[in-house]
Specification:
Two copies of one chain form a homodimer. The first copy, chain A, is built from ten helices and no strands. By secondary structure, chain A is mostly helical.
């Protein structure tokens, strides 16, 4: 445990004030342009208290979107084996998270992102800065192509989640994960490393 | 105009009562198992009045989900040229509808389908019976494979709509439609006619 610093330590209202300030800042200015210092100022607390409660900026961001998994932990294993098969491994990892008890929170976040403009912005920022950027930076790709590749991967992954967990369209809703890895993996692989000009 | 028949003609409450009964029936039992007669009984009106207000069962169904385009009109042109390039043509037609003023209603429906269980069921029924079935029945495919192929097409299309119109992830949100046709068309083509076993 880090030592407690700043004002009002241990006050749950303080924790909530920090989270509210962080949500507003990340949704308005995006992850990159938001600093812990600015969040602390908006919440009227010492920056050290923000770190004490939430750890790094990445960890604080994950707390604002209530995402229970850490892409920084999951993705290296997906990408370590290189670009070949990265699409399949990404789909397999994605389904393992969403099919687990953790998936309930992910579905709730997806529903909330669709109905609430700010949550939608937070989810978009999360996908871009915490997931897609981590994936694309590890593959040897033309930097100019990365944003489109990342967004296309996003379309397939979000669509898979929508059909399997929200709209529950059969046979995708109850398909064996490996059948979906085989069917959808090559799509993600092509978006990551293939020719996108048709 | 068809002649007016049945009870309470011209009453807006009657129209709403029919729509409410239709929504409940389509969401609970699905499109195929729902008859105009059952909807009329639930709404306490004559079946002829249902036809008078809403036309065919397909048209009534579209009214319950507030979908302003008719897949039965749009899809034949997409599919007439045969399976080659059907994926690209499907994506092009999809984007043309969603990019048009009509798309606002489509986005509203998608948002509502995510937050409301019944609207979600209606959208799923619409996709399966009015869009995917029409597409798959025209292509010379193994009937056993059609449901999975249709659902996979659905994952990519819904995901494209989510990223372009709801979460507005760049560069997909403002990409030229033809760039997306080139990037996403081959995915849809593979789901329609390609090998899905990896």
């Amino acid at each position: 445990m880090a030592r407690r610093t700043g004002r009002r330590p241990g006050n749950p209202d303080t924790r909530e004030a920090i989270l509210a300030a962080a949500r507003a800042a990340f949704a308005e200015r995006g992850f990159d342009a938001t600093s812990i210092r600015a969040i602390a100022t908006a919440a009227a607390v010492d920056p050290a208290l923000v770190h004490h409660y939430f750890g790094t900026k990445e960890e604080l961001f994950r707390a604002t979107v209530a995402i229970p998994v850490d892409p920084a932990e999951l993705l290296p294993a997906v990408l370590a084996a290189g670009p070949d098969g990265a699409g399949e491994r990404l789909v397999r990892t994605f389904l393992a998270v969403w099919d687990s008890p953790t998936g309930v929170a992910a579905v709730a976040l997806l529903r909330s992102a669709v109905s609430n403009e700010w949550t939608g912005r937070l989810l978009r920022e999360f996908l871009v800065t915490q997931v897609l950027r981590r994936v694309l930076d590890r593959l040897d790709l033309d930097p100019a192509e990365r944003p489109l590749r990342g967004a296309l991967v996003g379309t397939q992954m979000i669509g898979l989640a929508m059909m399997r967990y929200v709209l529950r369209l059969e046979p995708v809703a109850s398909a064996d994960p490996e059948a979906l890895v085989a069917a959808v993996g090559p799509t993600v692989q092509r978006y990551l490393t293939g020719d996108l000009r048709g």
